[in-house]
Each structure stands twice: as structure tokens, then as C-alpha cells.
């Protein structure tokens, strides 16, 4: 599949691994893919993100991702559902962090945080599924290669923190698809 990735898509994958490394994470997750997409310039995904104002709000998006990571990767909707059951997630996070340190609930998936430089960081299942979905999206648009725009659309198509944080910034699958591919043609029939 990677042979079908454009230079920009490959740069996003490499950038995601670099984000994971800088954060001391043992694995590359969908959050890292989103941060790498926000770093790109002069690509189709960066065009869409610019058009929707997301790159201007990069810091806010990064904070949203960090907040979700701090609460163990739970989405805002999941936190609201727990609150509806009378479970105060911020109280739980506070107690865990008092005992185990700030960021103790951060989804690290591997328990190897901070153990030095790794040569290869594996991708989480969510990140792998995003890469696989990008292929289906490219095929659905009849594009021969997988570009970074397909990675962005794949992140938005999957439920999870990146799609939720982007939606909070008015970046949705439909809006990105419209920016990239225009309005769907209507049958006059």
C-alpha cells in the first residue's frame, strides 16, 4: 500500500513518527497523524485545512488532543456520558495524577514511555485503520495515489479524538470533501 502514497502522504507518516518520538510515546497514534497533517505546507490537505481555518487554530487543536490524551484517550462525548452517570472524570484524573503523576492516564499503549530512542515506533490499530481507510477513500474518489488529503479524510471518517477535535473547529469530513472535490453533482433526471 505504501508504494501508492504520494510524497506528501509519506511525509505525514514520517512526521507522525517524529511527533511520537518528541512526545516520548512508544507508538504512533491518530493524534500524531493529525499533528503531522497540520505541519504540512503546500499540499492538498494543507490547502483544505487553510481554507477551513484549522491551521490558524493549530495550537487550540493541539490542546484539544492533549486534553483527550490526559483523560486516557476518552472523547468529550464519552466524558459527558460518564458525567451523566454521576462519574466525575476530572476528579478521577486528579486523584490518579496525585498518586502517579501528571499525565498518568495518557494513552501510551506500550508502557515504554521515555525509555530512550527507539528505531521503529509501531502504529496503533487506530492509526493502521486510518491508513487503510485512506486507500478506500482514494479509490472511492478514483484517485490513483493516496495523498495527504486522503489521510485527512480518513481521520475525519473514523470516530475518535482527531475527528472530534477537528469538528470542534468546524472541520468535518463533508466540509473537507467539498473543499477538495467540490459539490457533488446532482442528477438532473
From TrEMBL:
One Pfam family this sequence matches: Clp_N
Keywords: Repeat
Domain Clp R stretches: 2-187
Superkingdom, taxonomy of origin: Bacteria
Protein name: Peptidase
Amino acid at each position: 500500500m505504501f508504494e501508492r502514497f504520494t510524497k506528501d502522504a509519506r511525509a505525514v507518516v514520517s512526521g507522525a513518527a517524529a511527533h511520537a518520538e518528541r512526545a516520548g510515546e512508544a507508538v504512533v497514534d491518530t493524534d500524531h497523524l493529525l499533528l503531522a497533517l497540520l505541519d504540512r505546507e503546500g499540499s492538498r490537505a494543507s490547502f483544505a485545512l487553510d481554507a477551513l481555518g484549522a491551521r490558524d487554530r493549530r495550537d487550540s487543536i493541539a490542546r484539544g488532543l492533549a486534553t483527550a490524551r490526559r483523560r486516557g484517550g476518552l472523547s468529550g462525548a464519552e466524558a459527558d456520558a460518564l458525567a451523566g452517570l454521576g462519574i466525575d472524570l476530572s476528579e478521577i484524573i486528579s486523584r490518579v495524577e496525585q498518586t502517579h503523576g501528571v499525565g498518568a492516564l495518557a494513552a501510551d499503549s506500550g508502557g515504554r514511555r521515555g525509555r530512550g530512542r527507539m528505531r521503529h515506533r509501531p502504529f496503533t490499530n487506530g492509526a493502521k485503520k486510518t491508513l487503510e481507510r485512506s486507500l478506500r477513500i482514494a479509490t472511492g474518489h478514483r484517485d490513483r495515489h493516496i495523498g495527504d488529503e486522503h489521510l485527512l479524510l480518513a481521520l475525519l471518517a473514523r470516530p475518535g479524538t482527531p475527528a472530534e477535535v477537528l469538528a470542534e473547529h468546524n472541520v468535518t469530513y463533508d466540509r473537507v470533501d467539498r473543499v477538495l472535490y467540490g459539490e457533488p453533482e446532482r442528477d438532473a433526471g
